[in-house]
Amino acid sequence: MPVLTGAASAEIDAPIERCWKLVEDVLNAPRWQHGLELVVVVTRDERGRPLICDTVSDARFTKVRTRVRFDYEPPQRLTWTQIQSDDLDYMKGGWELERLGDDRTRVTYTLEVDPGPIGVFARPLERMLRPLVIGGRAKELARALALEQG
Q1: Those residues with Cβ within 8 angstroms of residue 133's Cβ, 6 or more apart along the chain or in another chain
Q2: What is the pLDDT of residues 99-137, one digit of tens each?
Q3: Lower Cβ count inside 10 Å, N or C end of the chain?
Q4: What is the maximum span of the chain, computed from C-alpha positions, in angstroms?
């Protein structure tokens, strides 16, 4: 059972297409997602999008290395599921985008993590980790879009 689960949403003054463009650009996610340090493509899908990637995240007390598979449902949903990791037992997450009007979008970030062997340490640190890996993601997306526009 995942130790760390949650979701965070934000309403963004940007069309869903602009939000989707940033969300689906998984290779550049480390530029705006705090703690995500590296995304390297292992394989691409038939459209050339990253399908399987190796990632490195800074979990403050350790570097977490995972191999994930992305699934794209433009422009509403991007999900990923861990397929391999020496550091975590389980991880899945995603972005949900909802059109609220021509120039407004609700974005929701979800994450479920079972840290497995490091879980003994993760449970006491959950209050510290939750805002970093879940709570701030939707706001980070809004900031990245604002910077891109400005």
Answers
A1: 4, 35, 57, 59, 111, 113
A2: 998 899 999 999 988 877 655 555 555 555 555 556 678
A3: C
A4: 46
Residue-wise pLDDT tens digits, 10-27: 999 999 999 999 999 999
* Eight-state DSSP code of residue 7: E
Token couple for 138: 């939707």
Beta-bridge mates of residue 97: 107
> Locate tokens 């992305």: which residue?
70
CATH number of 4-149: 3.30.530.20
Nearest to 37 by CA among 49, 29, 47: 29
Q: Cβ(132)–Cβ(2) under 8 Å?
A: no
* φ, ψ for residue 9, nearest 5 deg: -125, 160
